[in-house]
Amino acid sequence: MTLLCTICARGGSKGVVGKNARELVGKPVLAWSIEQARETGLFDAIAFSSDSEALLEAALKAGADIAVKRPDEMATDTAPKLPAIRHCLEQAIAQTGKMPEIFVDLDVTSPLRLASDIAGAVALLRESDARNVITGAPARRSPYFNLVEQRTDGSVGLSKSANPPITRRQDAPRCFDMNASIYVWRVEAFLAQPAVFYPDTRLFEMPEERSIDIDSDLDFALVDLLLRQRLPA
Fold first, then answer.
1. Which of 39, 189, 205, 206 has its CA 20 to 30 A from that of 132?
2. Cα–Cα–Cα angle for 182, 185, 189, nearest 5°?
3. How far is residue 212's CA from residue 223's CA, in Å, rounded to a whole number?
4. Mind listing the pLDDT tens digit for each residue in 91-144?
């Protein structure tokens, strides 16, 4: 079975300037995802997509097999990510001459994942008939119990109602925060209809301490601290 890994990273960033190339515990942020993909031993190729020549060069140096230049229109602040993922996937298929059955997209800004998380998400897809698998951590708040949303008139209420009302969080359905870390798709399904959610989407659960997505300087500091705690004494 042919498996492909895609990793997409823009050159620009407003939340944390230059975060994808910023040094994190001795290596660029982007290198963590590439090395984790390599560590799984699952992939026939790792393709890295960016609008930045500097990031593409750094990715190849870190171990990526394929560098894909992202079109400028897919690299703006408002551009959605799915078209960039599809572009990277199609370019990788063209360059390798192989049509994978499954592909995995790793978010550069989620370096706390483990190779075993990637392998586990892939295994969940293989064991099911689902079109894709996403990852997430148990939510701190429940939309059935203590997560509220604001209505157009300014009033607030629970995000989801239940009948009868849920009076203990333990009785609410399990809810998760998407951690934007790992996405696994069946290639045929994705190319036919690129989407994050399908009627049969599954979720691979990851712990909170491996689910921080770097979107601010505080996130960066927390990720740096947690990664340093993994270093041998």
1. 39
2. 155
3. 7
4. 999 999 999 999 999 999 999 999 999 999 999 999 999 999 999 999 999 999
Cβ neighbours of 10 (radius 10 Å): 21
Contact 112, 36 (CB under 8 A): no
pTM, full prediction: 0.93
DSSP state letters, 31-67: HHHHHHHHHHT--SEEEEEES-HHHHHHHHHHT-SEE
Cα–Cα distance for residue pair 179/168, rounded to 1 Å: 25
Give the H/E segment covering residue 225. helix 217-230
Other C-beta atoms lying within 10 Å of the C-beta of residue 109: 24
Structure tokens, 144: 């059935």
Tokens of 10: 């823009």
How is residue 218 written in tokens? 């505080």
Name the residue ranges covered by the structural domains of the chain.
Answer: 3-138+177-230, 140-174
Dihedral Cα 103, 19, 180, 85, nearest 10 deg: -30
Name the DSSP letter for residue 183: E
How far apart are alpha carbons 47 and 6 in whole angstroms?
Answer: 5
Can you tell me the distance from the alpha carbon of 142 to that of 52, in angstroms, rounded to the nearest whole number?
A: 40
When the candidates are 3.90.245.10, 3.90.550.10, 3.40.50.300, 3.40.50.720, the CATH number that belongs to 3-138+177-230 is: 3.90.550.10
Structure tokens at 115: 């190779």
